[in-house]
Design goal:
single chain, about 675 residues, alpha/beta, four-stranded antiparallel beta sheet, 25 helices, about 10% strand
Length: about 675
């Protein structure tokens, strides 16, 4: 028996050695490609040793590689090299993209690459050493090929390789890996894979290659045929809105009739900044004062996807969610939408948008007219020099200064108007605007000399060298410009019949680690406090997600309006709730919004995010892990409650996306008839 085992092992060893020697190019392709997929998971979502995504990626790599045996050995390098280049590009794009959006790139967003020319500084800031590592892989593979070429490898393989047999054997091995991965997946896994909302989960469960191939199918499906899935989408659309509750009036109904409204879009401004105070000075004194004077919604959350600022503009005006794939402003701007500007236009209002950047940025020159704006005042409407440019365009100080006369002229020309004023100085990379701020980020502390017992006063400034420190200074600069704008408004003879709505468009896209540096900075060493230290702050996933909320402030210098729009509102609120809430103040209603009037839903409101996460006044739910954090410890959460909210989330996301992709509003009227 022992001899048989010995003989069997000897034969197995011989076969393995023979296989390795005769398949060195294929094995090199597999190993190098797999290493890249493991690294991209490690350096994005931190999933390094997870077995299922590793086996799924391995199975697909082998499956693709197995088809290479159909190619003659002397040409196999070209086939494998193309795929190595593809995987390299996939990993580099995924890695950089994740740092921007905490998500993964989509084929549906290829059109947004036209925006890269305006954010090259942001891109350069996000490139890391690991991205260079991916680039080395094709060179390593080419070096292996050259070594094999200099030997008799290809000549020998040409003589002995049986291509069809190798294809069958290799595909069988790949099938076994994939069968295990997909065979152990449950219904929830498949549901998330089909819907593609939670990209991080798909990569965590099925790997980066499955995610990209699945995304390609999802992106092409509605484009292959405009009727694909239309009937099903229309049925769900009609069912959803036929059951939607009738909008009820409240104490704010009609309070804005006859009044103008101007939205002020505050780039990358987060609410937690309002609590930052260093060396006795507030980081955002102007914003803080504005919140005290007006109505401040302190639990307000943007719901952006990859369209960032443009997603915010879309959700704010329509009450819908961003597109599941791609961005509305670039890929779906030509659909029919019911928007705030359109409703107000029906009531005699002129509408305009204003920005210190090119009108082509995010395709606003096409998207804004489609959303109902009648006038557009962009870069060409302002006088400036190169020295006046901070970040992506005209600095906020000069922009506000020149915006006021334009707005005054609009008020003197039209009986009523609605407008959106979009700032940009506080855009990443934040180091550009931060150079114009003198906000002091230093820490001063006393330290006793161990030898002399002398107490010395020491000042350090590690924060200024950090990413979050640069963001703080940039915010302070933008806040100063906001103060200028408010001063102009108050001094002007105009705007006495205008409500201003200030909102942060989205978070700064800083990582949890980058923000944690502020909360846990040890000013003596420049390092961060660790768990167990008395000064350690537990800044976990949920705190980071909740920190992404932005200010929403309604303010007016009109005495009657200032009495109405006053105080702090604690209700949890999303960007898609803004238009419904504002329209009610004009006595109007958009039936086809998926948001709510916050003064009707109040503490029962629910904010849904594009990745399937959701937030209520009671808890935050993480769709990737199916875990949640309960805020109200007295509130008892059961699975039935969670399942109900998950159903609401999925239904809203699906209906909203169907409206965008299939142009479902083209069949109905704004009145809902």
């Amino acid at each position: 028996m022992k001899e048989k085992i010995k003989h069997g092992l000897k034969i197995a060893k011989k076969n393995i050695v023979e296989y390795v020697l005769t398949n060195r190019l294929f094995i090199s392709y597999v190993v190098l490609s797999l290493i890249m997929t493991v690294l991209v998971r490690k350096f994005t979502i931190g999933s390094f040793f997870a077995l299922k995504p590793l086996l799924t990626d391995l199975g697909l790599i082998i499956l693709i590689g197995g088809l290479g045996y159909f190619v003659k050995p002397k040409n196999q390098f070209k086939y494998y090299f193309v795929w190595v280049i593809f995987f390299t590009a996939l990993c580099i794009i995924s890695s950089i993209y994740y740092r921007f959006y905490t998500s993964f790139a989509s084929f549906g967003e290829l059109a947004t690459l036209t925006q890269m020319e305006t954010v090259t500084g942001s891109l350069a800031e996000r490139i890391k050493l690991v991205d260079i590592m991916y680039i080395l892989v094709p060179f390593i593979f080419y070096f292996i090929h050259r070594k094999l070429s200099s030997s008799t490898y290809y000549y020998f393989i040409e003589k002995i390789e049986k291509g069809k047999k190798m294809v069958v054997g290799t595909l069988l091995v790949a099938t076994l890996f994939l069968a295990y991965s997909f065979g152990t997946a449950n219904g929830t896994d498949y549901s998330r894979l089909a819907k593609q909302w939670n990209r991080v989960f798909i990569v965590e469960r099925f790997g980066i290659i499955t995610y990209q191939f699945n995304d390609l199918v999802q992106s092409l499906t509605p484009k292959i045929s405009s009727l694909f899935g239309y009937e099903e989408a229309l049925t769900k659309f009609n069912d959803y809105f036929s059951k939607k509750e009738v909008h009820e009036e409240n104490k704010y109904t009609g309070v804005l009739k006859g009044y103008n409204i101007v939205f002020v879009h505050m780039e990358s401004m987060q609410t937690f900044l309002m609590d930052v105070k260093l060396n006795g000075k507030e980081l955002t004194p102007q914003l803080n004062n504005l919140a005290k004077e007006g109505m401040f919604f302190n639990n307000f959350y943007p719901q952006v996807s990859t369209g960032t600022s443009s997603d915010t503009e879309f959700s704010l005006l329509t009450g819908l969610m961003p597109a599941a794939s791609g961005t509305v402003f670039v890929s779906y701007y030509d659909r029919k939408y019911f928007t705030l500007p359109k409703y107000l236009k029906e009531n005699g209002y002129y509408s305009f948008s204003m920005h210190g950047n090119f009108s082509s940025m995010w395709g606003r020159n096409k998207a804004h007219p489609s959303l109902g704006y009648q006038g557009m005042f962009y870069e060409e409407s302002f006088k400036y020099t190169k020295d006046d440019v901070v970040n992506l365009g005209i600095n906020d100080h000069l922009f506000f200064q020149q915006a006021i006369p334009i707005m005054e002229n609009i008020e003197n020309t039209y009986s009523n108007y609605m407008g959106t004023v979009i700032t940009l100085s506080n855009h990443s990379p934040f180091t550009l605007a931060s150079a114009h701020s003198d906000y002091d980020l230093s820490y001063t502390f006393n330290k006793t000399d161990e030898k002399t017992n002398e107490v010395k006063t020491i000042t350090t400034d590690y924060l200024s060298e950090s990413v979050v420190g640069g963001y703080f200074k940039s915010v302070n600069y933008a806040d100063g410009a906001l103060g200028d704008f408010l001063k102009y408004i108050k001094e002007s003879k105009n705007f006495d019949k205008t409500l201003f709505v200030f909102y942060g468009d989205h978070d700064a896209k800083l990582s949890k680690q980058e923000i944690d540096y502020y909360y846990n900075l040890n000013p003596e060493t420049g390092d961060t406090y660790k768990e167990g230290d008395p000064l350690y702050v537990d800044y976990d996933f949920y705190k980071h997600e909740l920190n992404k909320k932005t200010p929403l402030i309604m303010w007016s210098k009109n005495k009657d309006l200032s009495r109405i729009f006053k105080g702090k509102i604690d209700y949890t609120m999303g960007m898609y709730d803004v238009s419904t809430t504002i329209l009610n103040m004009y006595g109007l209603n958009n039936k086809y919004s998926v948001g709510h009037d916050i003064f009707n839903t109040k503490e029962d409101n629910m904010v849904i995010f594009p990745n399937g996460n959701f937030l209520t006044s009671k808890l935050y739910y993480n769709n990737s892990t199916s875990e949640y954090e309960v805020f109200d410890k007295k509130f008892k959460v059961d699975q039935e409650y969670i399942d109900k909210l998950i159903k609401i989330t999925e239904e809203k996301l699906e209906v909203s996306n169907s409206i965008i992709v299939y142009n479902l509003l083209d069949t109905v009227s704004m009145t809902g008839e």
